[in-house]
């Protein structure tokens, strides 16, 4: 059938540009039933013989709109049957998926679930790509959302016509195909009307609790009315320009990567994810400031498989440390990833030396049983630790073995009546021995060069007054045994031994 409409011409041109035309490529078409995805399906079906493609319809029933969602599923199934196309329809619960995956955003969880479903369908039937109905409106909204969130150049690119599969990450196939990025939503609606075809209205698109809906229904119309009537075109041009510039920078980074990349990822038996990547600090420092964050982002992706949860603030912090004067530093990154820097190297990876830590998991808060009776000795269990508390006469202090990293002598009166063991909390402060004032516990850890991956496990002996002892490092100034203590006074000796 000849290509006649403007939408058909643009979809056919997209198929040719991406190499999907004229080779019997099988495409899964993700169809929600709305005007955009319906127009996409009608157009692909219209040109499938002339472009040499095979189609399979896929619809995921996001089971949170009740009967309306069920009606959407029935509509898509009937549409596919009318066109004589095979169809896969499934129902899944996005709220349950969100909870299972520990995702805070409903929108992100629903998106991941949707892509996971389409990837499964594509792999089952051997499809080359999955076609989705993202339009130029969607592209403009995505770029604007990324601007609002402070994204850098990768965020300005928004969506591309053909892209690697977004979720689950690391899939060699299918590809993600967006042939409508040069078509507006108004044009998809008009196309359906020209064909005298119906489409569904998704009430979820009007729920203002979703950020994209607020951008679509409030912010974009406001910008068009008050600032630039062609704001959508301007955002699309920004995306296109950013894509070209980013493509150049990525090629330049690829050229320089052998000099930056010190060692290949060390596979931990889980594929790419879990690898540790080491980079040359000198080579990173010599990079143009536009390329340095991209190199660090590439290393993070090599460790985790994708850049989810990595923010521009993380990239700026790492880049500033690399170019700064500190010889050593470390940062906690999302997804249990550690950035570590020495005078010559930087590395990103999981807790590679967790098995070597002298601090086993503490698990929770543990109260310690204390006594004021001289000579008393009590052993308390605190997770993977056995904590021994002994009350000894101060007159014997000179004859006792000096304290080590896991033994401390403390002043019982300074501690008060309650004592416990826990790990660090946000906002903790500590007055190290020898200091007149307290400081943030985080700053103490940095000054003491405590490895980042140890800090969440280090036991803290705490009383009503605060942290009396950072086990393994230092006691508090206020908890020390004072000079000139009367011989008849008492001292509390606290010892930590691993229970395992």
UniProtKB/TrEMBL annotation:
Report keywords, A-Z.
Answer: ATP-binding, Cytoplasm, Ligase, Nucleotide-binding, tRNA processing
One biological process term from GO is: tRNA processing
- Which top-level enzyme class is recorded in the Swiss-Prot or TrEMBL entry? ligase
Q: Where in the cell is it found?
A: Cytoplasm
Q: Does the keyword ATP-binding apply?
A: yes
Q: Spell out the molecular function terms from Gene Ontology.
A: ATP binding; tRNA(Ile)-lysidine synthase activity
Q: Where is the Lysidine-tRNA(Ile) synthetase C-terminal domain?
A: 419-494
Cited CDD domains:
TilS_N
Q: Which GO terms describe its cellular component?
A: cytoplasm
Q: Which Pfam families match?
A: ATP_bind_3, TilS_C
Could you tell me which InterPro entries the record lists for this protein?
Lysidine-tRNA-synth_C (IPR012796), Rossmann-like_a/b/a_fold (IPR014729), TilS/TtcA_N (IPR011063), tRNA_Ile_lys_synt (IPR012094), tRNA_Ile_lys_synt_N (IPR012795)
Instruction: Give me the reactions it catalyses.
Output: cytidine(34) in tRNA(Ile2) + L-lysine + ATP = lysidine(34) in tRNA(Ile2) + AMP + diphosphate + H(+)
Known EC number: 6.3.4.19
Checking HAMAP family in the record gives: tRNA_Ile_lys_synt (MF_01161)
Q: List, alphabetically, the NCBIfam families matched.
A: lysidine_TilS_C (TIGR02433), lysidine_TilS_N (TIGR02432)
Q: What is this protein called?
A: tRNA(Ile)-lysidine synthetase
